[in-house]
Design brief:
The chain contains eleven helices and no strands. It has 322 residues and is mostly helical. Helix 6 (142-162) crosses helix 7 and helix 7 runs antiparallel to helix 11 (288-313). The two termini are 28 Å apart.
């Protein structure tokens, strides 16, 4: 039972942590600069600064969690690779040193450690406090360069996922398939990872908290629309690369899981569309922000199901073995 559950579990945890990391960095790059203090005064200013501290803490915790999942990934891979007639140490040495999967896995570990270091330095810089406002205002500042480093780490991390995915089994245009798979994952993180970070913070009952949440959701809307557009386009390209014919969508296990994933993802998109069309314009009314927040939480919940299906899908051979 455990042997059957371990591979999809580690894939789900891996994807979830990566999407959250991408979401945190996307939030800092896109949402945070567009937040204005909801009212003059120290309390409002500290509210926005605390959000950045929270983003860094989440990024650091997700990176540390990812380090454990990275080790679990070797265990899951070894489970499939294991030769009972040789010592475990020989299997591990061969898997890590002599296979493409192992080399990508080692690079992935180095990237995770890099992200841990970057987030730890950002957190220390923010806690120093004396130069925070000046550094935040300057794009070429130390703090800005650190966040750029976090972006580079996230992109490298997503690339390692693509290099050990079904994209590597595409018989033609493999570099393009890897690039498309990476863009698909980055778009998913910018959409659902960012939204998960926004709604994870409890919505207070004071007006300042509601205004701060409303600003984040308003700033998130164009990011979500762009991300979903990229996500859908890249998803269609990937489906075309992995499916031999349209009938594979219901005639093969891979196609059926993919179809279910598309349906569930569509539900999440509908919830997002409802929020965009009716929720955001009505946030000025009493209870409007709270209603949008609730629907956004439901959107994230449905996305968690998409993530679970993705964990199953990536462990399912595409039709024809591609």
């Amino acid at each position: 039972m455990i042997e059957a559950l371990l591979p999809p579990l580690q894939r789900g945890l891996l994807f979830g942590a990566v999407l959250l990391l991408v979401g945190v960095v996307a939030w800092r790059s896109w949402i945070f600069p567009r937040i204005q203090p909801p009212a003059p005064g120290e309390e409002a200013r500290e509210g926005t600064i605390e959000l950045e501290h929270q983003a860094v803490r989440v990024g650091l915790l997700a990176s540390l969690f990812l380090l454990g999942v990275w080790a679990l990934r070797l265990l899951a891979q070894l489970q499939d690779f294991r030769d009972p007639f040789v010592p475990v140490s020989e299997d591990v040495a061969f898997l890590v040193r002599e296979t493409t999967w192992g080399r990508v896995w080692m690079v992935q570990g180095a990237v995770v450690v890099f992200l841990i270091v970057v987030f730890a330095i950002v957190l220390r810089t923010l806690h120093a406090g004396t130069e925070v406002e000046r550094r935040r205002a300057s794009g070429g500042s130390e703090l800005g360069r650190l966040w750029q480093g976090a972006w580079a780490g996230c992109i490298a991390l997503v690339l390692t996922l693509a290099l050990s995915s079904h994209a590597m089994s595409v018989p033609y245009n493999r570099p393009l398939a890897v690039a498309v798979d990476s863009a698909h994952t980055l778009a998913a993180g910018a959409w659902m990872g960012t939204l998960a970070f926004i709604v994870a913070r409890p919505l207070g009952r004071d007006p300042a908290s509601s205004r701060l949440q409303a600003q984040q959701l308003q700033a998130f809307s164009p990011l979500a629309m762009a991300s979903v557009s990229v996500l859908v386009f890249m998803g269609v390209v990937l489906a075309g690369a992995h499916l031999g014919q349209v009938g594979d969508l219901w005639e093969t296990r891979y196609g059926r899981v993919l179809s279910l994933k598309v349906v569930v993802a569509g539900v999440a998109m509908v919830l997002g569309g409802v929020n965009w069309r009716w929720g955001l314009p009505g946030m000025g009314a009493e209870g409007g922000v709270r209603a949008v927040h609730r629907r956004a939480m439901a959107e994230v919940g449905v996305a968690a199901l998409v993530l679970a299906l993705t964990a199953v899908l990536t462990g399912t051979p595409p039709p024809g073995g591609h």
